[in-house]
Amino acid sequence: MDVASLWRRRLTFLLFVFSTFTVGAWSQISLTLTSVNGSWPTEVGWQVVNTSTNIAYNCELPGGTLQNNVIFSVPAGTYEVRAWDSYGDAWNGASVTIKYTVSGTALVTNATYTLFFSSVNTCPGPTAVTNTAQVISSFTVVTPCFAPTITTQPLSQTRCQGTPATFSVASSMTSGVYEWRKNGVILVTNTSTTYTIAAVTPSDAGLYDVIARDNCNPTVAFTSSASAQLTVSAAPAITVQPQASRIVCESANDTLRIRAVGVNRTFQWRFNGVDIAGARDSNYVITNMGATQAGVYDCIVSGLCPPSVTSSTSTVVAAIRPRITTQPLDLDICPGASGSLSVSASGANLVYQWFKDGVAVPNGFNQTLAFTNFDYASNGQYYCLVRSDLPNPNNCQLTVSSRNVRVSGFRTPIITSAPRSLDVCIGTQMSLVVEAGGSGLAYQWFKNGVAIPNAVANELAIKSVVAANSGDYTVRVTGTCGLSVTSSAAKVVVISKPTLTLQPSSKVITVGDRLELNVSATDSRSIQWMKNDQPIPGATTPMYVIERASKGDAGYYNAIVRNSCSGVSSAYARIDVNDVAVPTPILELSQTSVEFGEIPSGYDKSLALNGLIKNVGTAPLIISGISTSSSQFAITNAPSLPLTLAPGEVAGVSLKSSPTSLGALTGTLTVLSNSPANTTATVSLAASYVLRYRHETAEDFGKVSTESSIDRCVSLTNTSAMSITIEQVNLTGTNSAQFSTVTGLPLTIAAGQSADLCVKFTPGSAGAKTATLNLRSSVGGNSLISLTGVGEIPAGVVDAEEAGIAAWPNPMSDEFEIRFDKSTPKVNISVISLTGNQVAAYSHPGVDAGGSIRWNGRDATGASVASGSYRMILRYGDTIVTIPVSIIR
User: Fold this and answer.
1) What angle do CA 9, 14, 20 make, to 5 degrees?
2) pLDDT tens digits, residue range 325-360?
3) Domains of the chain, with CATH numbers?
4) Which residue did the predictor score with more confidence, 458 or 842?
5) Residue 618: which residues within 8 A CB-CB, separation 6 or more?
6) Is the Cβ–Cβ distance between 221 and 148 less than 8 Å?
7) What is the pLDDT of residue 582?
8) Interatomic CA distance for residues 406 and 150, integer angstroms
9) Judging by DSSP bridges, how do beta strands 643-645 and 621-628 pair with one another?
């Protein structure tokens, strides 16, 4: 290699010594060495040597892989990078870079060896250089200066006013100062790692931190701690005191309240100066108030900082309602007699008010309510309302009601089931029975107006009846106070087994002749004609007639005559029917069946059967009869009979189906003629008599007070696939005036849907009432619903206590509960106002013993029933219970 080439490969030394941080006591400093491969990296060798100690800290031998990105540690000092090349042609592009490991500051940058001189080093060295050009770089390592590290942060704290507070910090700093700050403002600068406030005040509250500044370079070598919150707390204080006095209703709940401020405040309520266990909230609830809970209450409030504070006192008074000690008793009394009701109660300042059927009794202000010269107007349900006349600012319940008792004047007995007329066979037993309601009942039977000796029970029995026992029988029923009633007459007819007085006789007749059979018997009550021992439909009169006999009418005929004693058969009459000498007319019908389809109930349908009858014979055909076998099919248009049809001639018939019972209907159209082959020809008739909606056939309103009315609704369900409309409804029958429809018309019911048809029953007078509700629908059909009900005089009720029924609260506000001591079947319940109007009605399927039924005080529309006095009537079986109810809204 020539000298020019040698100088072109100049050695470049780039030394960057950065001494940014000068404070610290570090014995070793980490350096990072990186290298770049040249053309012949195996020829390259170097050593990093401390010039003062002549110690090599990094060494690279020629022949190996160049070190790259290695870290080694050195003490502070001055260093040389010495280079060797085993081949003697310099490093051919190889270079070395050395930096501080922590800061990355370069000490040697891309130093390379450019000397053409062959030599090698040894490791670990040092190896002495033989040429000054082998020192390719020199640099100085100094100890760095870093910001301190906070190892323990100052902590947030809460201190009571007037107590000391100290903040502490720990750091890696060995020489420096601490700047203590509050809310970013310097409080003090010193070398202390703590800051103390001797006695905190509210103004000391805030955020505290500290800056640690190292003396190596205070401007940049500093670290700030985290902020610590100082909270200054005061003793608790009451902001809202409990109410000075309270009146609490018996059994009610009440809440005493206190409000306070303070850190970690706690509460302790006291009763008459004694701590209440568990009463640790700002609110104290008194539950189920009673006399033992009346007294003086206060509350002690404690907090994080002393002292505790005690509230003002609250005096709590219990408002106790009175108690009934002796209940009134039921009173039954004769008209014109005297009697009384009494009640006893305990409590303060008691006042009394008696009620009859929910209405206050004038001048009924005493413990005893007296009756003189009793009349029925005083009948009713009575109770006494007892009240403690005390101050009552909270509207506490200071009243109590006695039990309801019945006051009833004995009435004339009521015959509920009169004796019935009957036929009695001679020698058998006869029994007449009367059922009556009332008390102390006695009986006396009469025959044709004459008293029967010793017939003094509700049943009159005769063991063996004779003819003389026929006659009219009545019974007189006498009750308490000598009141009596006499039944309607029951007619008794004494009969014997039927005896035949006329027998049917055998006959020989010709086809087309009239057949007449007769029978007669004594004491006959029913007759049934038989043919060949089979009943003849509709043949139930003493005479049996076939106007034009046919061959099929031949057979054996007899009549069965019956009454309640027995039955007897007549002799058999043999009937022979002979043929008539024939010309040969032949009867033929154009069709053998007719279908009318569906006919709505209450309506009919007509069909014209043109050309139905035809003479297909060779001689004149005489039509002698055209009839139907069922009254539900009628002939509306037919030729006059007898009708003569020439051979080939035809005639038509018009029919109308007027069904009387629902379901599939069948009948027969019969044509009678002189046709020898078939004197009788028939056409099968069919129709479906439908009612396209369903409902109960009867609605019983039960027993209803003569002073009130009741509504009941019948559910109509459209069972068809088409919409129907009830166009008209009317009421008929003996008592139709006592019933009226409520639902407006027309009433349309969609397919598969239901609607209610409502009827009001207002009996007005005592006794059974009946009527018929007639429904008219041209599409759905017509139907009838039997309506029944019984008017009942209000006094005939059963006392609630006697029936084992208790009810409360009375007066009521939102809910009224009726409890049954006995198992009870379905109960119908109605609520009647003092004017006799029904304000609510519903039913319950029944309850077990101990069960209850509740009324929510609302009518059928869901609206609340107005305040006032009412009667609740319970009906189950034959039992009626009336309970007076007072409503206070």
Assistant:
1) 175
2) 999 999 999 998 999 999 999 988 899 999 999 999
3) 3-141 (no CATH), 150-233 (2.60.40.10), 237-319 (2.60.40.10), 323-409 (2.60.40.10), 414-495 (2.60.40.10), 500-578 (2.60.40.10), 587-690 (2.60.40.10), 693-792 (2.60.40.10), 805-887 (2.60.40.4070)
4) 458
5) 583, 584, 585, 586, 647
6) yes
7) 61
8) 95
9) antiparallel
